[in-house]
């Protein structure tokens, strides 16, 4: 399935539930972050997961359903990885190249189990208690920002 087909199925809540796994969450994050700012991507991912869960009758329970800290922290890790290593031709290539993201336990490098599994962390974003989330040393532009910059850049002048 292409990235466009995948994202459309996610956005319309028609992605088969058996395909909604950790990798699918990361694909959604990568695809939104490739197109939007972090803040815009966070809103889209947050709303999209909640809508998908509702359409699939996935209820919020103490151990299941939408989790704000996990969503925010994973989006952050994908954002930093995308900033540091750049995009690939598609989301599958990106996740294959950045296989460290595929370990669901990666957040335990930053969060104690008690903190990440707390009711507070499920409802609102809580900062890590073991180590800070990584920061990128590189600024990242979305495809939209890069195109706008290219369209508005003036030709460079050469003096000889």
Task: Please state the structural category.
Answer: mainly alpha
Percentage of β-strand residues = under 5%
Tally of distinct domains: 1
What's the SSE pattern? HHHHHHHH
Describe this protein's structure.
With about 160 residues, the protein is mainly α. The protein has one domain (about 5-135). Helix content is about 55%, strand content about 0%. The chain contains eight helices and no strands. It has helices spanning about 5-10, 20-35, 40-55, 70-85, 90-95, 115, 120-125, 145-150. The protein is globular, with a radius of gyration of 18 Å. The N and C termini lie far apart (about 50 Å).
Task: Give me the secondary-structure topology.
Blueprint: H1 3-11, H2 22-35, H3 38-55, H4 68-85, H5 91-97, H6 113-116, H7 119-123, H8 143-152
Biased composition (Polar residues): 151-160
Region (Disordered): 131-160
Task: List the defining traits of the structure above.
160 residues; mainly alpha; 8 helices; 53% helix
Question: In summary, what is this structure?
Answer:
The chain contains 8 helices and no strands. The chain has helices at 3-11, 22-35, 38-55, 68-85, 91-97, 113-116, 119-123, 143-152.
């Amino acid at each position: 399935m292409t990235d466009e087909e995948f994202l459309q199925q996610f956005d319309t809540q028609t992605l088969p539930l058996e395909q909604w796994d950790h990798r699918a969450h990361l694909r959604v994050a990568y695809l939104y972050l490739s197109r939007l700012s972090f803040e815009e991507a966070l809103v889209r991912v947050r709303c999209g997961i909640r809508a998908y869960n509702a359409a699939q009758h996935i209820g919020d329970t103490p151990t299941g359903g939408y989790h704000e800290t996990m969503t925010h922290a994973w989006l952050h890790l994908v954002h930093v990885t995308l900033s540091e290593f750049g995009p690939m031709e598609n989301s599958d290539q990106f996740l294959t190249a950045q296989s460290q993201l595929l370990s669901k336990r990666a957040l335990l490098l930053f969060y104690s189990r008690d903190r990440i599994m707390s009711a507070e962390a499920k409802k609102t974003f809580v900062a890590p208690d073991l180590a800070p989330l990584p920061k990128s040393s590189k600024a990242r532009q979305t495809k939209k920002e890069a195109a706008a910059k290219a369209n508005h850049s003036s030709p460079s002048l050469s003096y000889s």
